[in-house]
Amino acid sequence: MKRWNANLPALVLLFALLLVWQLGATGMDAAYILPSPTQILVRMWELREPLLTAHLPATLLCTGIGLAISVVLGLLLAVLMDASPVAEKMLYPLIVASQTIPTTALAPLFVLWFGYTIWSKVLVTVLITFFPIAITVFDGFRSVKTDMMDMLQTFGAGQREIFLKLKLPAALPYFFSAIKMAIPLSIIGAAIGEWLGAQAGLGYFSRRMMTQLDGAGVFAPIVLLSAVAMLAVAAVSWIEKRVITWRGSL
């Protein structure tokens, strides 16, 4: 009951937005430009077989590989920058600069290099996703108070013990926050890569529906992507509550 009451304002706002959308789309009477939510749901049901059996698995595979690479790369960069001030000065500006490059400009190059294989989409996903993981976890390492580190050092703890017993637990909440940010970004990256060059995937399917002036068909995979992202973030939040017990309710 408490959880229902906490989610009630969000549900009310979502219902109000959907109602306004439904009324506005009905008044326009131009489904190829702005389909109504009911038209999108009907179209999703009509397209359920290609969406769920062919294109959703392709997008999830690309997202999963890209997210896994981003987690490993982001953690390695965060640990390296925390361990070495020289590495921080060298890597931090490059990591920030990597996010200033328009993804839509690089994605076609990845397609030229790797063709319509999965790796062109994975690279787009990694480019977008590794940044919040590296920066957020690095901030988690730096959140440890100096006096706590000094206290452990007085008891004879070395850098390895300080990292495992102090910095790692302190950065764990930051890690889960980074993952919850990275999941939607990884799905967006996969969809962008599929939109610009692919033979399967929800992004590719949405672009194909656009060429047919099927507005509801364009929105159908987008709604499916949003639902997948929300379910994945909810799963991570569930795991977070059971791993980080000392924070209480999140």
UniProtKB/TrEMBL annotation:
<comment type="similarity">
    <text>Belongs to the binding-protein-dependent transport system permease family.</text>
</comment>
<dbReference type="GO" id="GO:0055085">
    <property type="term" value="P:transmembrane transport"/>
</dbReference>
<feature type="transmembrane region" description="Helical">
    <location>
        <begin position="91"/>
        <end position="116"/>
    </location>
</feature>
<feature type="transmembrane region" description="Helical">
    <location>
        <begin position="174"/>
        <end position="198"/>
    </location>
</feature>
<protein>
    <submittedName>
        <fullName>ABC transporter permease</fullName>
    </submittedName>
</protein>
<feature type="transmembrane region" description="Helical">
    <location>
        <begin position="218"/>
        <end position="239"/>
    </location>
</feature>
<feature type="transmembrane region" description="Helical">
    <location>
        <begin position="122"/>
        <end position="141"/>
    </location>
</feature>
<keyword id="KW-0813">Transport</keyword>
<feature type="transmembrane region" description="Helical">
    <location>
        <begin position="54"/>
        <end position="79"/>
    </location>
</feature>
<dbReference type="InterPro" id="IPR000515">
    <property type="entry name" value="MetI-like"/>
</dbReference>
<feature type="domain" description="ABC transmembrane type-1">
    <location>
        <begin position="56"/>
        <end position="237"/>
    </location>
</feature>
<keyword id="KW-0472">Membrane</keyword>
<dbReference type="Pfam" id="PF00528">
    <property type="entry name" value="BPD_transp_1"/>
</dbReference>
<dbReference type="InterPro" id="IPR035906">
    <property type="entry name" value="MetI-like_sf"/>
</dbReference>
<keyword id="KW-1003">Cell membrane</keyword>
<keyword id="KW-1133">Transmembrane helix</keyword>
<dbReference type="GO" id="GO:0005886">
    <property type="term" value="C:plasma membrane"/>
</dbReference>
<keyword id="KW-0812">Transmembrane</keyword>
